[in-house]
Amino acid sequence: MLPLILGPRYNIRVTCDASPSNDRSESTLEVNPTNPYNMVGSSKRFTDPHTYAFSLAAYSTFDAGRSWQEAAPLGLLAGWDGVSDPTVAFDDVGGAYLVALPFQGPEPMAIAVYKSTDGGLTWSPPNLIHSAQGDDKQSAAGDTNPASPYHGRVYAAWDGPGGMLFGRTIDYGASWRGTGANPVGTSLAPDSFGPQVVVAADSSVYIFFIAGNDIQFVKSTDGGDSFSNPATVASGITGLPGQLPGGTFRTPTVATACVGANATDLVVAWADYRQNVARIYYARSNNSGATWQAGTGSGMPLLSGGAVSAPDQHEFQPQLACTPAGDVGCDFYLFGPKGGGTTPLIDVVLTVSADNAASFVDRVTVTEMPWDPTVDAVWAHGDPSITFIGDYFGLAASPLGFFPFWMDTRTGTQEMFTARVAVRPANVYIRDSSSDTGTVPSPGNHWEAPDLIVRRQQDGSTVWVDQDLLRDGVTDHFIYGKITNLGPNPAENVTLAVTVGNYPALDALPGLEFRYPQDWYPGDWQTVAVQQRHLYLGESAPQNLTVGATRIFGPIRWPAVQIPQEGTWHPCLLAEARGNNNDSAGGLNGAPVLVAPGTCDYGSYFWGDNNVCQRNLSYAHVFAKAESLIELPFIVGSPYSHARLVEVIVHKDGRLDGVPMILELLPPRKGEKPAVPDKTHLHGAKLAGKHWNLTHRVAGVGFAIEPGQMLRLKLSVRMPENFDLDAPAKVTLFQRNDSHVMTGSAILELVRAHARQADKEPKKRDAKARKKGR
């Protein structure tokens, strides 16, 4: 039987705080309906965990969770000490709404809404929509279906004076109201704890909540103008004790819910203690809540058979989500001794149903290692006998799979982590080199990218020959890629996406260090300087790939006006094979080759992921019977790097021993910092004025830099007359950070020109110098 999900998956650290006072917990995560690679999350961020002082922080990703950005602190109104209990919702055009709970001292006092129109990077000032002592435990959801008569509306519910209260916006957050023409705060039920709002594809709005020992819900079919009376989903549930055996953290019972791909399918889950051990129970409806399958009426165990947890393991804080394909996921914390030890630890577990929530038999552990809830513990409301890890955590679902969003203490501090769990995973593969067979890290020269070509006409699907660049200002070029599915499942909606790196601000050779995903994804280019170094060409039409199949994807058009003349800049193609169920990162449990493991210095080297590659395009010329000077400007460093020292190492092959070579540091441009040569990292080279003569076959020059600083250099090679190019001659450049991390390489390869080139210019022998970079 083919796997539905795999685990553990590579865990991505979302936050990095040096101070143990900046604990994070109680999180939420949502996917932008207009872009599945953009997600917005939020959590509590403490400033003093022992006095329970905190507010909310907001996070965003534009590359499906591979890298994250934290927004500036959310604004507070006068009299607020902070905001709490995060919940995030999207409207149908990508607007994000963070609904928060302002508080003063220990008491919540209102409901406020922050809005972001840039994918979570920045947020508006708070919009106070309701003010009452006792407002608490809010939830929100948006109608994102463009075919819905109420598309764009966002609904919120919370506990407050008078029971469960309600508010909505019908004008993208400009104003808020209750049901009908009533003000915000319409009471929908007299007794409520922890309401959960979900919106079905048919625009129906459901709000599930706990009322005593029952799970109940109300429903609206008119865009929130009115709601049904409360109806029961399950009765006689057994809530969790205040603290689980062996734990000090508080454990309230909160319901979670989701709607299936079919608008009539509903699922509700909660943590239950009826077996004297915490277990997840659930109920389901296939007729829009008219009837419920809930066992004997009090719910059914979520897990059965071989998926059942061990007797000493407690399941709690379930979160439900559903992919657009209809796969229902539930993640939860699993608390108890691990690996034969006696100390109770916590893992994140995900289970997925492929049969409309009839059964949950596919279960994986998401966390790479369990975490200890006693580490860097928060004292709940300042009480050291009751600690706090959040009352809930996040789970998002999209066409790309499931994304748990949890608190973890593996770093010694409560930090946020996430992981991508693809459903029916496939290994989508595009070669980095001719010797690349799908193992990772890939072997060989990672700049060759034999599965990526440039054509000057739209014939790459039948003529697989790279034509490089014409640069005549008239001819459009077309990019094609070969993509293979290594299995174990068919690959869904596979596309080829291509970015031109180092566009258009460079002179010739590209920088040696590209990082995935930041250099590949436009959403990660947040500064003008970075934006000027990239050009996104687009994405091919999607295709499905059976296991073992290889197909050609493209064309992706590269307009002639965006291909400057030779010598003005050097383009480097950064390609990615994407897919809904792509699970192709390399290493144990899908871990890529990280630039800086254990930090939030995001990025990995592309040769550690099967689905990305790099192809370089550059030319220089050597004239027959004449001395020729080849000058190759290039860049070292990365705007994402934290390195303090960068070394440029030049290695020429034996045939070039007598060929003069010079390395020159180019003057900084306006706004750039000057570089300082490091004399302790100089070998095989001799300073001569403002440049270095490379006197040995292997030579290196080091420079002290600031984090994120990039340097422009130039390698000059003076080729003698009649140099024999019957066999290629190579010069290899390496970049090394902080004396030990090789981050990239480049090869200047001198080869004999093609015959047709010589025919055009019969009076000279033309050689091509091709830059290759890793």
Automatic annotation (TrEMBL):
<dbReference type="InterPro" id="IPR036278">
    <property type="entry name" value="Sialidase_sf"/>
</dbReference>
<feature type="region of interest" description="Disordered">
    <location>
        <begin position="755"/>
        <end position="774"/>
    </location>
</feature>
<protein>
    <recommendedName>
        <fullName>Exo-alpha-sialidase</fullName>
    </recommendedName>
</protein>
<feature type="region of interest" description="Disordered">
    <location>
        <begin position="128"/>
        <end position="147"/>
    </location>
</feature>
<feature type="compositionally biased region" description="Basic residues">
    <location>
        <begin position="765"/>
        <end position="774"/>
    </location>
</feature>
